[in-house]
Amino acid sequence: MSLQTETITKEKKERNFFVQFLRENLGILIGFIALCVLLSFISPVFLSQKNIMNVLRQTSTNLYLACAMTMVIILGGIDLSVGAIIALSGVITGGLIAFQGASVFVAVIAGLLSGVVIGVFNGLVVAKTTIPPFIVTLATMNIARGAAYVYTGGKPIRVMSDGFNFIGSGYVFNFLPTPVFYLIIILVISVLIMNKTKLGRHIYAVGGNREAARFSGIKIDKVLFFPYAFSGLMAAIAGIVLASRMFSGQPTAGNGAEMDAIAAVVLGGTSMSGGSGKMGGTVIGGLVIGVLSNGLNLMNVDSFWQYIVKGVVILIAVYVDALKKKKAKF
């Protein structure tokens, strides 16, 4: 194959990918652009570089969770433990640095392991038993949150370490916030898993029809296990980044984080009944949630109203998904 032919083929693939992305996410893209235009008129600060970077930094931690939550929901499951894992991983990492004098590297590894252990436990129980994922992760949510309170005595752990603070507050190449840099890496990995690996194809197959997947020879247990373990890891990363940004590990961190992640996933077009969804839609959904929260803050709207807005957004997204499925049947 000549160099010219290879170039043309590559351009066609890129064009097809872009067209497919637009087709799949046109509705939410239009809504996202309309929201940005509206907020730019309401607040002149909205489109400033500082505010845009702030939105990206704040949205990043939610999207860590949402990438893994997309896999879990495509399977037809749910993970309610991610918010509590954020708190636990943050206080463990902060506590090791502040109280034990551990190096940042050792403390971060310990924080990551705490999330992975809970994620692995969730995955094993979901895969090996008939207990619904909602119940399993509700239980581990309480266990992790309780462990965070027990470890800290209910008080924040102040961490004054330049190395630790850089994790969530630093910049890469002097302009890109470190949380956004991590997000790019996580997104690439998540997209590759779902679109380019056998595991990704099996996740869609199991979420679409578990019995058919079983009869086709897919090892259901392994497919069910991975997304929950991955979710625990992503929640631990989010917890460490948040603790770094707040200069402290806090047992109350991550309250409601699971709802934000679910909102991003559902708003991005992933079906709550499983079998369908894309990472691209999740990213846009996460950006919509982030921009909406930022816009309400800029308009000095009470933060309590944000819970109401997010609840309405989730309800609308699920309703739209139900309408799509109903139309597809006819």
UniProtKB/TrEMBL annotation:
CDD domains: TM_PBP1_transp_AraH_like. This is Monosaccharide-transporting ATPase. The chain crosses the membrane at residues 26-47, 63-92, 104-127, 134-151, 171-194, 223-243, 304-323. GO terms for cellular component: plasma membrane. Keywords: Cell membrane, Hydrolase, Membrane, Transmembrane, Transmembrane helix. GO terms for molecular function: hydrolase activity; transmembrane transporter activity. It is an enzyme of class 3 (hydrolase). It comes from the Bacteria. It is found in: Cell membrane. InterPro entries: ABC_transp_permease. It comes from Clostridium carboxidivorans P7. Its main location: membrane. Its EC number is 3.6.3.17. It is a multi-pass membrane protein.
